[in-house]
Design a protein that fits this description.
The chain is mainly alpha-helical. Helices cover 56% and strands 5% of the residues. It has a two-stranded antiparallel sheet. α2 packs across α3. The radius of gyration is 25 Å and the shape is elongated. About 4% of the residues have low confidence.
Length: 164
């Protein structure tokens, strides 16, 4: 049988931090009723009571999936118990932001796949983070830019009315 590799010090520290948070927050998150490790593991997709116990006691190293599940269940950030895993999540997120994104076309008649650049993906992400009112304002601005770009060079340009 293969011998189990001991956890690194940062992994043991993560487990200690997670256990402190778990003990402090499980009663709060469960609205005053203490939730068992078995219930917590089942509710947040971590696994059995034994699996939850192994993570909390440093017998199994936390992975990103388990860390995210614990964070969701405890209503905390991953960085609240693991700076290392939070940094890994952040690094992975940055890698994804720099790649072109494959998206379904919004026009139902097209039914085709199209690529958008990382710049377009960032713009879309920023747009989605705005309130509905802000999005409507941005659409007006974008429409005005489109109008400006389509005008001939001999034209005097947009009027104040165009820019409203």
């Amino acid at each position: 049988m293969k011998e189990k590799k001991p956890l690194e010090e940062w992994q043991l520290e993560d487990a200690r931090n997670l256990r402190r948070l778990f003990e402090a927050r499980t009663e709060i998150v469960a609205e005053g009723k203490l939730i068992s490790q078995m219930e917590f593991g089942a509710k947040y997709g971590i696994g059995s009571q034994g699996m939850v116990w192994q993570y909390l006691n440093g017998h199994r190293p936390l992975n990103i999936k388990a860390a995210v599940a614990f964070a969701k269940g405890l209503d905390v950030k991953v960085s609240d118990f693991s700076a290392t895993l939070a940094a890994q999540i952040d690094d992975a997120s940055k890698l994804e932001q720099d790649k072109p994104t494959l998206q379904l076309a919004s026009n139902a008649d097209e039914r085709q796949l199209q690529w958008i650049s990382s710049l377009e993906a960032k713009l879309l992400s920023a747009f989605r983070s705005c309130s509905y009112a802000q999005q409507q304002g941005l659409l007006v601005i974008a429409a005005n830019f489109s109008t400006i770009g389509n005008q001939s060079k001999t034209d005097q340009g947009p009027t104040r009315e165009d820019l409203r």
